[in-house]
Amino acid sequence: MKGISLPINTIVIISIAALVLVVLATVFSNIFIEKSGSMTTETAFSQGCVTLKYVEGCQKQPSEIVITGFNPYGKTEDGKPVYDDLLTACRLRFNDPDMRNTECASKCGCLQEEISGEGVPLHELGD
């Protein structure tokens, strides 16, 4: 049995190290993207999902996950860009303006029981 436990321990350590690298890559890519000022919807979705699932443990709503560098509508406040959230990235990525927080979270791999709250569909927001 001792010969089997070493490879399992090694796999667990490698998995944890990979998770740490993903989180670090997310943090550092936020810094880089903030300087460059633009991000694709696909990148925003991927980055937001990593934050939701691995950093927040699926305990926040996608509408609460602000993605630095993601500003698809060019919004500004006092001359500075206003970044959008993961729910907006989901709606754009999957071309579904009525997508809710639970649907977006499930697209990121979070279980419905892990997250609560709904987003307001885009057509209900107004201008």
What does this structure look like?
With 127 residues, this protein is mostly helical. The protein has one domain. 54% of the residues lie in helices and 3% in strands. The chain has five helices and two strands, in the order H-H-E-E-H-H-H. The chain has a two-stranded antiparallel sheet with strand order 1-2. Helix 1 crosses helix 2 (41-55) and helix 2 (41-55) packs across helix 3 (86-93). The longest helix is centred in the N-terminal third of the chain and has 35 residues, at 2-36. The model is unreliable at 33-37 and 116-127 (pLDDT under 50).
Roughly what percent helix?
A: 40-55%
Number of helices: 5
Q: Alpha-carbon distance between the termini?
A: 65 Å
**Reading side by side through the largest sheet, how are the strands ordered?**
1-2
Query: What class, by secondary structure content?
Result: mainly alpha
Please tell me how large the radius of gyration is: 17 Å
Total domains: 1
Estimate what percentage of residues fall within beta strands.
under 5%
Provide the low-confidence segments as ranges: 33-37, 116-127
- Oligomeric state, counting identical vs distinct chains: single chain
Say how many strands there are: 2
Q: What features would you highlight for this structure?
A:
mainly alpha; 5 helices; elongated; disordered C terminus
